[in-house]
Amino acid sequence: MKVEDIKKICVVGAGNMGHQIALSAALAGYKVTCTDISQDMLDKAETFARTYLPERVAKGKMTQEQADLGLNNISFTINLEEAAHDTDFVIEAAVEKINTKRKLFEDLDRITPPHAILATNSSFIVSSKIADATKRPDKVCNMHFFNPALVMKLVEVVQGPHTSTETAQVTMDLCAKMGKTGAWLKKEIYGFLVNRILSALHNEALFLADMGIATPEEIDLAVMNALGHPMGPFRLMDFTGIDLSYYIGMERYQDTRDPKDKPSPLVVEKFAKGEWGKKTKKGFYSYE
Ligand code: 3HC
Of all protein residues, whose CA lies closest to atom 22 belonging to ligand 1? Predict the structure, then answer.
């Protein structure tokens, strides 16, 4: 398959990442179906698209024709079969739980045409943990976007031992078609490039806050003012979702059984309280 053969893209998961990945692909000219198990998430994703695009036009960042194309190209459905049966490329952006992903890939393998590439937007999980749930492991890879996906340029494409070079190449080419910069990782590693680096920063920030050395606000200010980051680690966790930090820690701990991989006490506390960041209007900061 060549990137030119991709006409239809299916994005599974309409959450924090999925809704913006879907819209990015629609704006790049692809017919996109966005699907989720939650109608509420799909409604929110559709409302976002209908609000965001006119705002871009009003701001002079997009023409009316581009906005119309984006909106015409995207559709939302709760029915996975309907979303994926005629797709050429799937980007899975569901919850960061390995068993959910494995089940999804098993279903997608049954539903999608045999030529379709199945990519996962997982933040940390390498695709070899998922590929054997399908009968097409050569067409399975990681395609990892960053939040907010409409803005951030980098996409990591991770080629596992099962992934064909053709699949990785087509995925890299798709990144370019979507106006993104692909980084091709030729070997798998948990967390890829960016999240490994980011995790080191976040773990240290959480350790300092857990120890009472400084508050999350103080640590964020220090990182912004000393390192020039656009937002500090706690604001960023609010933004990407404290639930995601929790699930990533738990998944990793279940895999390694190493206590240092468990989510930090502060993350566990926030997760238990349902204070998951911007999406729940409260995390380390308040968004009322
Ligand atoms: N969705 C879409 N667009 C957004 C947005 C959002 N949530 N937030 C901001 N933007 C756009 C604005 O529309 C604006 O676009 P324009 O310049 O073309 O008009 C542009 O981003 C800048 O926005 P603002 O001026 O309002 O605000 P900032 O200058 O603070 O920029 C930011 C916002 C781009 C989010 C910036 O704060 C930033 O770069 N933050 C760090 C983001 C980051 O580190 N992301 C990686 C997270 S890790 C990850 O994703 C891993 C994954 O596995 C979870």
Answer: 151
